[in-house]
Amino acid sequence: MTEPTLAPGTCDETDIVLRPATPSDAASIADLPASRFDRGWSVAEFQALLADPVVFAVLAETGKPADGPAGFIAARSAAGEAEILTLAVSARHERAGIGLALVEYACRTATSRSAGSVFLEVAAANRPALALYRRCGFLEAARRPQYYGNGEGADAIVMRRDLSQLVDARP
């Protein structure tokens, strides 16, 4: 299986480079969603996730180690479908095209792994994320009432993107 090539310059911020994430990145990755969400993933959870052979993950970096990751996405594929498990972009890199580049890379990778569609869940109140996913071609497939246990019982929206238009990306 041939996965899409990672290349710099895929974001509005041309100094951003996308690279595959590995279990050794778990600590720096865990800091990113922890600062953005009510409940982030632990370092141990990220290590296990990144060691799973059905998971593919990409880190967006500025090239300056002190900056930490600019963004991150993890997804998995199996049985002709893929699921985006988590996506986070650092606050200082929002609206620079990093989220878009990460989602598109995940969709191309899912296609290269023979997935025909990709799913994700997003909080119904997360308007920036909903806008990004819609821009990437995701449509609402279902709603999970009171899915998120953050004290407010926030609904989750399950979204789906058909990957048939990316069939040319398959090796």
Give an overview of the whole structure.
With 171 residues, the chain is α+β, with helices and mostly antiparallel strands. 26% of the residues lie in helices and 32% in strands. The protein is built from 4 helices and 7 strands; from the N terminus they run βααβββαβαββ. A 7-stranded mixed beta sheet has the order 1-2-3-4-5-7-6, with helices on both faces. A hairpin with a 2-residue loop joins strand 3 and strand 4 (81-89). Helix 1 crosses helix 2. It is globular. The N and C termini lie close together (7 Å).
Going across the major beta sheet, what is the strand order?
A: 1-2-3-4-5-7-6
Mean pLDDT: 82
- What spatial form do the alpha-carbon principal axes imply? globular
Q: Evaluate the radius of gyration.
A: 15 Å
Structural class, from secondary structure content?
Answer: alpha+beta
Sketch the major β-sheet: 7 strands, mixed
Strand tally, please? 7
Approximately how much helix is present in the residues? 25-40%
Low-pLDDT residue intervals, each spanning 5 or more residues? 5-10
- Strand residue content: 25-35%
Features:
171 residues, alpha+beta
State the gist of this model:
By secondary structure, the chain is an alpha+beta fold. 26% of the residues lie in helices and 32% in strands.
Describe the secondary-structure layout.
Blueprint: E1 17-20, H1 26-36, H2 43-51, E2 55-61, E3 71-78, E4 81-89, H3 98-112, E5 117-123, H4 127-135, E6 139-148, E7 154-162
Parallel strand pairs: 4-5
Antiparallel strand pairs: 1-2, 2-3, 3-4, 5-7, 6-7
